[in-house]
Design goal:
43% helix, 14 helices, Rossmann fold, 2 domains, 4-stranded parallel β-sheet, alpha/beta
């Protein structure tokens, strides 16, 4: 297979289809599969719907949030709308994504909202002082923790700007950024430049990717969790912070406002407004939070329950069907320019 990264992105779904068909035919030497489950709408979802037509198998798409960025694009958006309307069923991890699917013409009965869960054996409240001792954080520090890939869409640069304003009034403020680089290789360097320019290099730790157990320790050590994100589905990082009893400052992206339910579990600030982010962080450390109540949000819901609901939806939607029926013309997807 010949592929040039970043070029002719409208053809990516064709490469996915080719790979999926080949892989499934290999697997089906042992026996037929029951369904195809594609996570993310493009190119995975589109490619898998194409594959389902070639193979005669039901296909499901799980929407996780990136679909909002794809739908406005001319050729990729056309393909994604076609796939969403022609797959067997759609799982959305948030109500905002379910609304998005309905808005592009998917019948509501073909959509199931199944949110993300939290591994509460790992993400749970704990001794703040002990966590700080383990991590080398001073008891008096005002510690902000952010968990997310180092990409502009997560908004860490706004946190750095807010930190500079906070430290101008109180030098106890510190910021820890957990998460590694991803598909924007230049962003970490720009972030470091901003840290240096704002004079907060001694107060910011870029800790990189960490295992879940270490992330949980940082969350227990923190005063507040912050994520000034531009776009989300159902944000795992927010859920995990709250499971540790930590108040959250974030934006209304995705279902964040429902999850945080201000002022019960934190505060919501407008996207891209570091001044309001600064004020919300300052307020968060002065608020007497009911951390037990914060940690209790969603405590009865687990990944096992999410799996049961997913299986039930698959069985419900595939009853009596042996393939997805594509009622619309398949978009060619071969006119896309690099974006």
């Amino acid at each position: 297979m010949f592929y040039l990264p970043g070029v002719l992105k409208g053809l990516d779904s064709r490469w996915v289809k080719r790979s999926v068909v080949t892989a499934i035919r290999e697997v089906e030497r042992e026996g037929p599969i029951d369904a195809i489950d594609a996570h993310f709408g493009y190119p995975e979802g589109v490619g898998c719907v194409r594959a389902s037509i070639a193979l005669g198998r039901p296909v499901f798409i799980t929407m996780r949030g990136l679909e909002r960025q794809i739908l406005p694009l001319r050729w990729r958006g056309e393909q994604l709308r076609w796939a969403l309307r022609n797959c067997t069923g759609i799982i959305c991890v948030s109500e905002s994504l379910k609304k998005l699917a309905v808005d592009v013409g998917v019948p509501p009965e073909r959509i199931e909202m199944i949110p993300n869960a939290v591994d509460r054996r790992t993400f749970r409240p704990g001794d703040r002082d002990e966590a700080r001792r383990v991590l080398g954080i001073e008891p008096e520090d005002r510690l902000i923790v952010c968990v997310g890939m180092l990409v502009a869409g997560k908004g860490q640069h706004h946190l750095v700007e807010a930190l500079a304003g906070l430290r101008a009034k109180d030098a106890r403020w510190k910021l820890v950024l957990l998460g590694g680089g991803a598909h924007e290789p230049g962003y970490p360097a720009r972030l470091r430049s901003s840290i240096d320019e704002l004079g907060v290099a001694g107060a910011v730790l870029l800790a990189g990717s960490q295992p879940p157990e270490k992330i949980a320790t940082w969350l227990r050590a923190a005063d507040v969790f912050a994520l000034p994100t531009y776009d989300e589905g159902c944000c795992n990082a927010v859920l995990e912070a709250m499971a540790c009893g930590l108040p959250v400052v974030t934006t209304p992206a995705g279902d964040n406002e429902f999850l945080v339910s201000p002022p019960h579990r934190g505060y919501i600030v407008p996207i891209g407004r570091h001044e309001e982010l600064e004020r919300a962080l300052a307020a968060a450390v002065e608020t007497a939070w009911d951390r037990e109540a914060i940690a209790g949000f969603g405590a009865g819901y687990s990944w096992d329950e999410a799996a049961r609901r997913t299986l039930h939806f698959f069985q419900e939607r595939t009853g009596g069907r042996d393939r997805a029926i594509a009622s619309e013309r398949i978009p060619s997807g071969n006119h896309s320019k690099p974006r």
